[in-house]
Design goal:
GO molecular function: catalytic activity; FAD binding
Shape: globular
CATH class of the domain at 96-214: Alpha Beta
CATH architecture of the domain at 96-214: 2-Layer Sandwich
Cofactor: FAD
Family: Belongs to the FAD-binding oxidoreductase/transferase type 4 family.
Radius of gyration: 23 Å
InterPro entries: FAD-bd_oxidored_4_C (IPR004113), FAD-bd_PCMH (IPR016166), FAD-bd_PCMH-like_sf (IPR036318), FAD-bd_PCMH_sub1 (IPR016167), FAD-bd_PCMH_sub2 (IPR016169), FAD-linked_Oxase-like_C (IPR016164), FAD-oxidored/transferase_4 (IPR051264), Oxid_FAD_bind_N (IPR006094)
Number of helices: 17
Strand content: 15-25%
Oligomer: single chain
Keywords: FAD, Flavoprotein
Amino acid sequence: MTMIETLRQQLGDAAVIAPGPAMAGYLEERRGLFAQRPAQAVVRPADSRGVATCVRIAAEYGAGIVPQGGNTGLCGGAATTHPDGLILSLERLDRIRAVDADNFTLTAEAGCTLSALQTAAADVGRLFPLSYAAENDCQIGGNLATNAGGMNVLRYGNARDLALGLEVVLADGRIWDGLRTLRKDNSGYDLKDLFIGAEGTLGIITAASLKLFPAVRERATAIVGLDSATAAVSLFARLRAASGDTITSCELMGRGPLGLALEHAADCHEPLPERFPWYLLVELTSSAPAAGLDTRLEQALQADDAGAGDYRIAPDAATAADFWRLRNSIPGAQKGAGASIKNDVSVPVADIPAFIEAASAAVTEACPGVRPCAFGHIGDGNIHFNLTRPVATSDEAFLAQWGALTRRVHDIAMQYRGSFAAEHGVGQLKPGEVARLKSPVEQDLMRQLKAAFDPADRLNPGKVVPPSG
């Protein structure tokens, strides 16, 4: 009996998709860098036991498994690496198992979309704060597997900080039930943290217990024009103190990327009468219904030492949405200006201006005319330092420089004790950078963990951990 026949016998016909047109969507990949790589089958179990069965069958036939959530990743973590492997889709594990408003927790299966969790929390007057542009498509299992960040990390933390417990299928097909909803548990190793951010290389997350927070009752949103990135960092620090530490989001945008959104994205408009080299999009939130956030924000921005060139505080939700549309349109708008090379890095917040200056000089020296597009989450140090091709260079010629330009950017981030993978993960795009930039001790520890949890290298092979030698 073939592996596909065994899978169908054990899991049912609806759970197995053989090669053909129905498989095409699972082979697509957001950036197109690893698209249309074949697989023996796509397996869609209906529950965690089905996932465990799939893992055991794959081991019996010597096949690798690529776990796949909403397939919104940007580093090829959910794309196949070998035609003999299986894609394990978690999309049918989409049940919310429990919501406990008094305990401020929610337990959900890995295939639940992020927006579904946000809605479930809102239905009981609570907030699940993880939020980013793909929230209608991405799934919580993938969010945890990549330790997703997004817009609200400054206030609430990454996905890791929102997880209290996990259910995980291990490489041998056993199920670890760690779905605890405790804030304190020092009874041994914190196993869940090994699986969060591991991109399915150590185990397959099938469910999670998550933290909820009080619902937002008041919000204040402003866009600020500034003369420099240094002024933006200083203003962020002042705003954080003056607002009573109510800042939820603080986004930095250079004039270049903002201009791309204005030129190439729909319904984007100049936010201020005068143009500035840099912009800060800041949002304050509170669970109190009369927190006076607009007043706090106004007073902070009007202070003599604020350094704001000009600003607008959104008078209503529609205007705030206009401000956010500018920020969220930048990645897509880059396509209108030609090919781009994406860099997702982080450095200490105070070093952001120096990093941007040094990285811009380095890539311009290597590729004259390149257009650096720096924007991102200034509050947590995560800068998307994207590069748009020179106007006179073809897409193909520019993309041929991907490796050389990316290495320059990563090297400078590391000089500031930063990271070359801030929130998008490693996947199959960056294991070479892990080998190049992480210490031998750190790499050895990673390989030891992989060997301990998945000695046959069947869980998402070729991802995250660089090969030995």
